[in-house]
Write a structure and sequence with these properties.
By secondary structure, the protein is α/β, with parallel strands linked by helices. Helix content is about 40%, strand content about 10%.
Amino acid sequence: MKGILVNTVAELEPYPLKFISSGGDTPPVYPVGPLLQLGNRAGVDDSKDEKQSEILRWLDEQPPSSVVFLCFGSMGSFREEQAREIAMALDRSGHRFLWSLRRASSNIFKEPPKEFMNLEAELPEGFFDRTKKRGKVIGWAPQVAVLANPAIGGFVTHCGWNSILESLWFGVPTAPWPLYAEQKFNAFEMVEELGLAVEIRKYWRGDLLAGKEMVLVTAKEIEKGIMCLMEQNSDVKKRVKEMSEKCHVALMDGGSSQTALKTFIQDVVKNTL
């Protein structure tokens, strides 16, 4: 192995990068991120285009930084009991919200998450009546387009690395809700090490893909996390804005990621001559 290409930013993770690079036998590390797909995806069907337009129109009607966005990735889903706890938290918080909700599958490898057939029956009685003027529950979500909208003030996320980089790029603070794979490590780094996110709870038990049932997160915990996430002028918001600027600068001429990419290309050329 001649080198390690990493989708991160030197200013975001300086200590791990320094540690990896300090070993005498370790190949060079090239932090070239954030690598993001910010444009429209090819092949998105018309029905999703219509849904995206409807969602973005609704967001355009909301005040700046007033909406909390809840979205948990392509595999993220919840059972009815957990969905009710989230609904109660959103109801009590009083904040505007955009919630991408899908039903948990009995076997996620054979059947992907699907939308609930009758949300009014599954969520607390009167939830939609009480929140219809300030909230929207959806299935599929155009995550990048939503995060880019100025109405979004916070992001409750499964903490996949792409989602983290997207939120930082648009300067949106996060509240991690890890569900599987490396997401618990990401959540720890974002909250405890970097101070770029607020916690909903400190310890997360269960793994969606490993078949280990997720421990129920209570409405009280979720509401507390949302209130911290949406706090105006918080230290976390300020740090996220600063890191967002650094991510943008990293990709400019002379920026750390631009420089790392040029070095990578030069090293590849040297090794192929």
